[in-house]
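FYI - complex with glyceraldehyde-3-phosphate, inputs then prediction.
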Amino acid sequence: MSDWNDDALAMLFPVAADVPAKVRVDVSKHGPRWLVDGEVLPWTGQAREVRSRVAVRLGPAVTTMLLGHEAQLTADDAKLAVAAAERAWKHGEGEWPSLHVESRIAAVERFAAAVEAKTDEIATLLMWEIGKAWSSSRDEVTRSVEYIRNTVKELQHLRAADLSVQHGSAGSKQHYARTHRRPLGLVLCVAPFNYPVNEFLTTVIPALLMGNVVIAKTPRFGVLANLVLLEAFRDCFPKGVVSLMPGDGRVVIPAVMSSTELDVAGNPSGVVDVLAFIGSEGAANAIMRAHPTPITLHKILGLGAKNPCVVLPDADLDAAATAIVKGGLGFNGQRCTAEKLVYAHRTVFDALVTKISTRVDALEAGMPWQPGVGITPLPEETKLDAMRALIDDAVSKGASVRNTNGGRGAFSIMRPAVVAEVKQGMRLFHEEQFGPIVPVAAFDDVEQVLEWQRHSPFGQQASVWGQAASARALVRKFTRFVARVNVNDVCQRGPDSFGFSAADKSGFGTLSLKEALLSFSRPVLVQAQERAVLDAFLSRP
Ligand code: G3H
């Protein structure tokens, strides 16, 4: 394909005067600032303009919109956050880690109410910063508030279970024990741009609830939406318990990760106890390498994925095609859980590709505030070129774009491409696209699909479409390689009560309402050989 430009798409960008008043952003309200040691500080140092690629037309040109400014913290500023966190943690004996769990819950509930009160403000910024449609932006905030409240309920259940006395015997000896859960220490949270509020709060809040102290790096896209929460964090938690670091991750993250303290023998040990990171494998590796004592670092990682969606000959093709468009192209394909390679049985290949293409062609492109819009601007400056390179590579090796104008774009908006006959040797066969492309490969025998999965570095999820009799063996085999198999359903993280984890290079650890609480804490037993002794020693004066 030679000419990718689409003048009709460029005309979707409004002239500034036509941006509806209710979605406009007041730039003066989003100056550079950050949160450290219990204070929201205005920033006078170097700042970055935060510009939206939900752009406007200025004469014949399309140009970005200024939304606000992001402080560019230095390594020294990041070290201030570390020092504040260390004071708050105080080797696990600071005010927050020592606080009774009910008081921590009360603080988190106040925080949830503060986030809820700012739902529309946060959603408006999300819409501009990452191009997420209004209803999905709002859902991201309401889902996060619900997540916080449900996490509190899970903590109450967990506590009730921990308070019960365990009994065991070893030989003739009886043992009675009670479990307590203790925080791990200083948690560094780094959230991705596709869920900059939700995946920020789903790590920060469980970490706080369990008594940890947190330093959070705000994502490059979605930073202003996070900074709306600065006052709520300051007002709901003690000094130094939460710090928010805007700025260049390559500057501030190594400064935090490389921090050390001396142990009793004078040996340096890393100060960061937990890394909660959602993003790319490369960035995760670089961050972990900066830690001076990796053995002491707990990690919870959500990384890349190439989730296959397998469509068997007896599948309901209409249902599968609808789900593939929803799962593969929701938020323009920028979800780690998206279906990233469709594997269609040769006998249904053409029919499925046609059904997917028809549905993709029906998606409406537009600005994220327009109701019903399914294709919106992409936040990353290089995204269109990256997508075109993937499509060009596949087409040059024999694949074809099957839908109308698939892959054509303007500035930051792109019509999704349904790329058929993707094969070994094409980048789309093995690379995560994380964007608006639906690659479709044909197979004759499920063994070909399994062979692909065996050699895939990724292992997050798979979806299988077909009747039980023909699909069950494949579903069972997939469970050897991935963390979740979706039967006649899309790949997804939710419901949030289900454990969200991954195999291989797709991630490490489990997030979900309950598992996150376990991930950010450690169990400690107090045991005695007599029940009465245990009760006496554990009763509060
Ligand atoms: O980008 C990765 C997200 O964890 C996907 O979450 O399935 O809820 O959209 P989701």
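Residues 416 and 436 are 5 Å apart (CA to CA). The chain has a mean pLDDT of 97.
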